[in-house]
């Protein structure tokens, strides 16, 4: 009997554990947040539609090479008769006849095939391909921006959580010191003022802890908004700030940026499009050759009898030679050259801007790393300083104000350390974005 009850209790306990696990909030790492944002971000959804439209543009440009076949039909509801007069050879009088020269139904099968367009069709097709590549590059650019926003929000949440830990440590340290002061007060070694001052210090630290917890809630809302998750959904964000190393030479970083940045790819594509636009504009001066053919059927009634159908067909080799178009072609050529020059200027300016961004981001990484090293040293010294202040206070060589100053110094050092750690992680992310390596670092570069 007891054994059966034990089995039932064990099964019930297992069921409760499984239910709790199934109801627990889903965990999301930084990579999970990035993938979620790439699925739901409206800006990326808009960019994907632009890619799809550009892909259809290639199909549209390709169709211009293929023959065109159409079937036209018409019905004539107005009879067009003509009166014809002939003299009667016997009487000599004029006799009138009405003759119908029209047919009620007309069908035409029309065929056309361009033979030579001076490079116009090929240029348009290449421009459509470049437009598709440009749409893909713009999607990558937007993904990098979205990724950096998500990373910034994620690191902001981690910083807020660390701030709660620091505030809780400060409060616990102050409460422990209050306990020590009260014990000394009961033995007559401390005054009531010291107790009061220690109690005030504890009360002053409680709002800081509340504010830090509120900052965590706000950071979670900001991160949920960045990844497209509803604010009421429960999510367990998993991660921590790390003091990772980031060593790369400036020249190597610049080479990576110039070869990987989607903005550079966009600039190169714009220059290629300008080149093709010049060729297309020049082709307007060349003759056009095309082949056309018509097959006509006319009848007064719908029938399958070939005897009642009038059939005609014709084929043409059409040549069109432009002579004068009001200087339209010349203007198009001049505009295309201007667009190419503009694209070259934009590309040069972009290279300068990217170089500045890369150099600045690498300097910021170095500065953040130095700040972190100095703050870690400060935490060690502040911890040792608080230990010495507590020992001096217990021996009667220091006042409680000196101990509280040491506590404040340690709290400030810990705060500065986690801020420096946050700054380092964010600076590395910005440097990777500047080099065009942010998406590849999370294996997200090939996704659309």
Task: Give the number of helices.
Answer: 10
Kindly report the CATH topology of the largest domain.
Answer: Outer membrane efflux proteins (OEP)
| Gap between N and C termini | 62 Å
Biggest sheet: strand arrangement: 2-5-7-8
Shape: elongated
- Which value, in Å, is the CA radius of gyration? 41 Å
Overall mean confidence score, pLDDT: 85
Structural class: alpha+beta
The biggest sheet amounts to: 4 strands, antiparallel
Proportion of residues in β-strands: 5-15%
What is the CATH homology-level superfamily of the largest domain? Outer membrane efflux proteins (OEP)
Give an account of the 3D structure:
By secondary structure, the chain is α+β, with helices and mostly antiparallel strands. The chain folds into 2 domains: 26-66 and 117-286 and 326-441, Outer membrane efflux proteins (OEP), CATH 1.20.1600; 70-116 and 287-321, Single Sheet (Outer membrane efflux proteins (OEP)). It is 67% helix and 14% strand. It has 10 helices and 8 strands. The protein has a 4-stranded antiparallel β-sheet, with no helix packed on it. Strands 1-6 form a two-stranded parallel ribbon. It has a two-stranded antiparallel sheet with strand order 3-4. The longest helix is centred in the last third of the chain and has 68 residues, at 328-395. The radius of gyration is 41 Å and the shape is elongated. Mean pLDDT is 85; it is low at 18-23.
